[in-house]
Amino acid sequence: MNFQLTEEHLAVQAAAREFAQTELLPGVIERDEHQKFPAEQIKKMGELGFLGMMVDPKYNGGGMDTISYVLAMEEISKVDASASVVMSVNNSLVCWGLEKYGNEEQKQKYLTRLATGEIIGAFCLSEPEAGSDATSQRTTAEDKGDYYLLNGTKNWITNGSTASVYLVIAQTDVAKGHRGINALIVERGMEGFQIGPKENKLGIRGSDTHSLMFTDVKVPKENRIGEDGFGFKFAMSTLAGGRIGIAAQALGIASGAYELAVKYSKERKAFGVEIAKHQAIQFKLADMATNIEAARLLCLQAAHDKDMHQDYGKSGAMAKLFASKVAMDTTIEAVQVHGGYGFVKEYHVERLMRDAKITQIYEGTSEIQKIVISRELLK
Question: Structure pTM?
Fold first, then answer.
């Protein structure tokens, strides 16, 4: 067993940390306050290769491993989870899904531009009545010969108004259940495709989360990913990898809050000494650091499993389940360490606390992760 990062890994980590501190930190509070999408910052992330890290270089990607991706996600998420969720969706769900299951024409047409951040993508699975139960798709893709007629609504879509390419999961044959579901590539601007208003969210307020409406949208057959009926398997396989990205995001939120708490505890004085010298604070920091390190090892284990082409379903679910809980617990304690200052926006930790909650919900709730884990254990 080797717990040392390679020089390449350390370089990626350092580059992501520098970008987060110099490009994302300025203005992050204002973007959160005004729900402003970090368009300029996302463009720079694309130019630096953060939006197609694991894509093969022949499709303009970075050709990096999943460990590099986890390290970069952590550093970006320490500062701005609204930016890191764009990075996560584009890397884990859209680029990975297209590269793994798309045909060569689809890769040349879409993946080559997604990998550089020239355009960004969105993954469209959730619906008003189909969140955790992904088999209950009400969006339909009626087979019309050389095209599908797409009708329905998708909810909670990250990059909803900024994406150019949308991977939409829809039901073609109800009688076949989940085996009658397809995954279609929908382009922004297709007739009948409407974007609903932006959601006013608790956290990750800079990311653009929207509902999408499809009314008789004609999607060419060549835009279907995989064989007829492959859509559900495509969605589940893609989400399994996506969980590693969200676990890394949760890890970053937690470690960012912890670093702020340590810094503040060395500056703030109470009863004549820095509060870091009080055992009550020391014990909080010890618990936070221990849980973060455990979460980090789970994330790296899942990333390693994926890189080694081993089954990462259980390790990815464990990483997301644990890291998201650590994010929630750590940010709450970071606010507590800051006392009254933790409750005001300029100290960042209240924003990290709000951002942490979504990691227990999207790309599979914590309850769904427990189902995934227990199924693997009981096989």
Answer: 0.97
